[in-house]
Amino acid sequence: TQNDYIREWLPYREDFLHILLDLEAPPLPQICKICQKDGVYRCPDCMHQPLLCTNCCRTTHASHPFHRIQQWTGNFFEDSALHMAPPLSGQSRPTTAGKDGDQTKGDRQDTPTMDDDEWEDVDNIPLHLRPPVGSKHLTIVDVTGVHFVLVRPCQCLNAESYPLQLFRAKLCPSTFDKPSTAFTFSVLDDFLRDNVECGTSGMNYYSKLRRVTSNVFPHLVVDRYRELLRVAWQWRPLKLLKWSGFQDNMNPSKDGDLVIFCAACPQPGINVGPTANLDESWKYTRAVVMDGNFKAEHMHERRPDDQVWLMDGRGFMVRNPPYQAYLKATPHITEKSSCNNHKAISQASASRGKLNSTGVGATACARHGCFYPHSVVDFQKGERQLNMDYSLTHALSYNMTGIENVLCFYDINCAYMKNLRRGIESSDLLHLPPSLTITAGIGMWHVHGHKKECYTRYSPLFIKGAGWVDGEIIETLWSTLNIVSASTRGMTSPHRQELLDFQMNDSNFMKMIRMADSLSRKLKTAWASVVLARDAFERFNKAITPEQQRNWGRQEETALLRRVHDPSVMDVFEIQLKKAPTVHAVELWLLEKSPRQGVHHGAASWITRGLAIEEAEIILNIYRKDNGPNPSELKRLTIARRAEKLSADRLRFIADGRIYLWVDDEFERSDESDGRTDLTLGQDTLDDEDAVSNDGYSDSSLVEVFGRASSNDPTSPYLPLPSKFGSAYCKAKKLHRLAQMELELRMGQANDALHGLRLALADKAVIFRGVVRPATNYSMRTRAWQMIHSIDTSVKQCAAIYRQCRLAMISLGADSDILDRYQELQKSHLSATAAAFTQGAHDHRDSHLPWFWTMDIPKDTDSKSWLSEFYRIHWLHAKAAKDRWEEENELVTSEFVWVVNFFQYRAKRWNEIYMAKKLAGNRGAACYAARQQAVYDRLAEQAELIWQGMNPDDNPFHHGM
């Protein structure tokens, strides 16, 4: 471990410290290591920091002009610089003037301006930090800091211009008339690497270079921050042009041609051969995911008409003029979603006055997380449909020839897909092939924030051909982009676009070089998961009749075929039994009907609040009991917080109750109240039925109930509901209409409790058969029983709520018909029937199950029980999981082939460039093309080796392009 290595280091600590201090002194004897003369300088950047004389220092550093040297003062080594060392013997120092008039506005050669409150005097700047005066020195910024180097340009008649000479010396000038500042290639590469990996801004990076130059006086180092930003801006497109094989930049450009895309997605003509049957095989479906990112904001620009675009549209951001024309020509139609009120919809028209762009929207491949070239758009107000339409249509036009099926994931696809075709058909600037079939999906994390129906309609688990994908991979890409988002906020539009393009291209590049390793992990997971999924499905399959297998299989097949045109057909994967009215349905019905005479408006909602408080108190009591007499500190804190919230809710409910129960101030609190708090509903409902008593439901007076309710004890059963007074008292006090409303709501509450009870017990039966019994080791058994214990807690809660609900019905004077429907719940009813573990679902009959299993089933379908319906749902879900894992296995196997084909295609393309450049006599371009070809050959070889290590007897790669 790390601690073991630290312990090994401890004995060396004192010796290391002594060596560090010894290195501060010159060696003895104090002579030059080369010529044996007196040593004056040493170079900490050279190995063993040798002591050198003046001549040897200059000679040895002729090829290392960016090393930082130190000079011996007699007592210590002081920071110095190579330009300060005396010239070699026989040479004179150049005296060419270097006045301000010779410098450009962008390159300031003056000393840095100082604040009034700084103690340093400009005249006291250390010598090695002062710009040389009276010489042709160039300010050069390197990874080792800022240097002043004497540079003599070639003056021959056929010599190149000074900027080109500097560039051949791997120095990038910041200006081109009279360059006075240049940046080394190494510092530019290091800045870009820091920028993409660490999100280092230009200001922070140059601040680091100042400290590298002088750790004691970094503020006295000349300022070249603005020059760094400008030169790095020029450097990025140069690197992209080089990586893409463009030499002269005069070739006709295409959208997104300077960046790379996913190596594992099917791309006809690149990694999919011409003989592939694209129409019939589901494997060639493109899986895409869309999303918006509101961290990538952009401020309004000072001079928006004065812009210089270096690679507009040739990266991931869309070309600006056509996009702006599309926005002007396309109206935004605001529609309220029929699903939950998602942020992406509700803020679609939100505007922020100080921002030119509120964020970006992008499309990426859903399986591997690579951005699509020329598909990233800016948001003007919010995540609007018209923005995402532009992104999707351009993504689906990238290397899609012959592909007719697309699987599209988007957080709000339930609303987005309704208007996609209409928006595209109404625009002259967007196009999608009419034959293209788009299947809508919602990522696994976001789909649970939608309505219940959206889960089966849009979850990737129920999408044929999706494989095992979560549809959320783009969320992981935003973290990479957000690294530089803060830096781009105040940039010009071209500079921001090119920086974001470079960041996204780096993300795709890192995905590409690691693709084979990623696919190997996916394939190993798929192999193991296919076996488990098949076993789980077979266990359910054996528990049903062949007729049920055929019927349920036809239901699944029909739904999957029709889902593209009508997602509601996927509701077959949900429970089909009609539920009794819930408490919320009853509340809505009471609110919508005409108000009852003698009842305040809003009484139904007030009673519903009371029922919710009552349920929360029961759940808290059960939680308290389950944690025992000595819970942990964290659990005690949880209990205390929930009790405090309940207390506040109770006090608000009691205060409002004085209005609905017509209570005057004279009933504030009476001596009739004895403060009883002995009812502890829900604390032991499974183990002791006597824990539920009807002490809280008696003919009590308003004074007594309000007194007990105000005791502020969360375990107290006394809430001022009509059921606490009894039906006789309510009639006497003309509260009978309010009591009738509570009775109707209580029936809805009972329906909810019994429904939850059925769900829990059926899940318990299925888990026992499919998880607990097949568990073969301790870990599997532990997880299985944890699931059972969690279900038991739900059973306790639902049973306790129902029992208290039934007591309230009795107190409210429920007639025999109601009580016959809502019968007494016995302890024996709360265990899953043993038949569920040993027999198939088709063997269950209503007579074998407790009364609440059949209360909501129509009389003409007595052969259909809740448990058999649960077996249907679990069978369909288990089959879906099995199918998705089998698809994943086949997909990843094909993706291995496509990745190797992609690398071979790129290697072949670079070989063609190599041959063309070699024939044209362009040696440099030919050498670079050969190097790139070797890189892709190695990547292809590595992917094949990884596959062969997993499948030694299978080599599918000769069937490639």
Task: Give a written overview of the molecule.
The structure is a single chain. The protein is of the alpha+beta class. Helix content is 47%, strand content 7%. It has 29 helices and 15 strands. The strands form four sheets. Strands 13-12-9-14-15 form a five-stranded mixed β-sheet, with helices on both faces. It has a four-stranded antiparallel β-sheet with strand order 2-1-3-4. Strand 14 (405-410), helix 11 and strand 15 (437-441) form a beta-alpha-beta unit. The longest helix has 54 residues, at 866-919. The model is unreliable at 89-122, 665-695, 834-848 and 857-864 (pLDDT under 50).
Throw out a few tags for this protein.
four-stranded antiparallel β-sheet; alpha+beta; 7% strand; single chain; 961 residues
Low-confidence blocks of residues = 89-122, 665-695, 834-848, 857-864
Cα separation of the termini: 47 Å
Look at the structure and give the mean pLDDT.
81
* Number of extended strands: 15
Count of alpha and pi helical runs? 29
The percent of residues in helical segments reads 40-55%
Radius of gyration computed on alpha carbons: 38 Å
Enumerate the strands of the largest sheet in spatial order, edge to edge or round the barrel.
13-12-9-14-15
Biggest sheet descriptor:
5 strands, mixed
* Strand portion: 5-15%
Helix/strand class: alpha+beta
What would you call the shape? Answer: elongated
